[in-house]
Amino acid sequence: MINVTIRIVHKDDITTLNYAKQDMFAYVLYFNQKFNEGEGQILQKTTTDLIDLAWASTERITYPTSFFTPRTNYARRIAN
Does position 79 have pLDDT exceeding 70, yes or no? Predict the structure, then answer.
């Protein structure tokens, strides 16, 4: 991981597949990887682990949350 930024995300009532159903903060993670199979497997495991952590967090907290994944197909399940 290279960097993490925290951004303010404003409520979006216009977009059909909106990210923010209310004002919230977003944590944006920046990764740097080489374009080879080994590095891709590391990023896939990191991504799926972070997705699992995000899902576990949404099951324990009481306020609305959401997350989205990078432009990869590593997600194993989708939101209900």
Answer: no
Angle at 71 between CA 48 and CA 31, to 5 degrees: 65
65: three-class secondary structure by DSSP:
coil
Q: What is the pLDDT of residues 15-49, one digit of tens each?
A: 887 778 888 888 888 877 787 888 888 888 888 88
Q: Where are the beta strands (DSSP E) in the chain?
A: 3-9, 24-30
Annotated domain spans of the chain:
3-60
Q: How far apart are CA 28 and CA 73, in angstroms?
A: 18
* Beta bridge partner(s), residue 56: none
What are the residues whose beta carbons fall under 8 Å from the beta carbon of 70, sequence distance 6 or more? 47
